[in-house]
Amino acid sequence: MSYLMVILVLNCGSSSIKYCLFSMDYQETCLVRGSIERIGLSDPILIQESTKGNMEQQVSIENHRQAIYILIEALTQPHQGFLPSIDSIEAVGHRIVHGGEEFTDPVKLNEEIIKALRALSNLAPLHNPPNLEGIDAVSCLLPHVIQVAVFDTAFHQTLPSHAYRYALPYEMYKKFGIRRYGFHGISHRFVMQEAARIVRKPAEELRMISCHLGNGSSISAIKYGSSVDTSMGFTPLEGLVMGTRCGDLDPSIPIFLLDKGSLDLAEIIDLLNKRSGLVGLSGFSSDMREIVNAVYSDERYRILNKTHPHHEKAKLAFEIYIYRLRKYIGAYAAAMGGVDVLIFTGGIGQNSSIIPNEACNELEFMGIEIGSARDLADGYVELSKPTSKVRVLVIPTDEELMIARDTWNLLKGETENRSSSS
Fold first, then answer.
1. 3 near 25, Cβ under 8 Å?
2. For the chain, is the Cβ count within 10 Å smaller at the N or the C terminus?
3. If pLDDT is split at 50, 70 and 90, which confidence band does 1 have?
4. Is 414 inside any structural domain?
């Protein structure tokens, strides 16, 4: 196995596959990024972006195996392809959402590991099954390729028991595995490493708070290189206000609704996961960009858009979102005895200047001083003043690169171990 590896990264969802092709040279070159949307639905579409040009086309597919076959064709086609043949792919790295307590590091897949992942599907019924479909498809189409699983939950396996246990009887934890698992771990780990590089200190010497803000959002307390608390819990429903998820909620509320006969169990699950959060509060959108447009006419000058038909509800949704986020930042600073670096990432965190600025408002007592945004290398931005005790950074996440790095490092390490023992 060469040290220059071509790695395909797959992120398989229930009706979509996101993919990236990397050449793991010293520059970690991303050759192409793409996605196949609406798998098993009407009008599936392939979207691919690369230095050789962009491509968007309707495709005829019914399942993940067909989708992966189509994307491999796109990578190897004569004019816009990047590979002479599928044999050029040396490894495939998979994003696996839930690794339970069993998996704390990336692993090379085999039948025993895959069997263990299937057993974990009850903990992530919406996520792990499509992840496994991707693994099965690669096994059939690329039997020569080494496959590696990288887990979203693994980064949070360093949580101490007082942070991951719920105040439920012990047998609930032992029998059903009910505990805080946390998610977005691949993203939190990536921005942690990048932040340490920016401030030129080892992560092991820093206390960081990482805010991954997208349609799904979570925040993590990272103390000296390890996750010590995180807002998502047993499922991705807990924590911050999200696009369609409610976040933290009095657990009696679903029981109350069920008892009153207002909603049945399936309707309550749908309510909490798909009809709450920003869309539930605003009544019209789960997209933070549309919420902000309904609140402000001008983001820079904070001119209120009172003529918008949803202004009042959007304003309340925005205020609740910021309040919950700010409260978590303060709580995690307290949990770690202080904070050195505050990071914003994810679609909302890295693309809207108003969210980080509003979240940091009134946090001066923590040593956070916000000034004019300063561009750093690699598209990163610093929001804090030079005099601020806390560095506030905006770092675009790259989960696919993190998966490629993990895959490469795992396989390179195995090669080096074999070489040293021979």
1. no
2. C
3. very low
4. no
Q: Is there a domain that residue 281 lies in?
A: yes
Answer yes or no: is 353 within a domain: yes
CB neighbour class for 51 (10 Å; exposed up to 12, middle 13-18, buried from 19): exposed
CATH of the domain at 299: 3.30.420.40
**Is-contact 348 217, C-beta < 8 A?**
yes
Q: What is the pLDDT of residues 164-179, one digit of tens each?
A: 999 999 999 999 999 9
213 lies in the same domain as 140: no
Query: Could you give the CA distance from residue 3 to residue 310 in angstroms, rounded to a whole number?
Result: 55
Shared domain check, 349 and 225: yes
258 with 341, same domain? yes
Task: Give the integer Cα–Cα distance in Å for 416 and 410.
Answer: 10
**CB-based contact 210:219 (threshold 8 Å):** yes
Number of domains making up the chain: 2
pLDDT at res. 127: 85
The pLDDT of 83-92, averaged and rounded, is: 90
Token digits of residue 17: 């596959």
Q: Which residues 6+ apart lie within 8 Å of 98 measured at CB? A: 120, 123, 124, 127, 128, 151, 152, 153, 181
Question: Which range is least confidently modeled, 264-268, 307-311, 389-393, 410-414?
Answer: 410-414
Q: Residue 373 pLDDT > 70, yes or no?
A: yes
Which structural domain, as residue segments, surrounds residue 90? Answer: 6-151
Catalytic residue list? 152
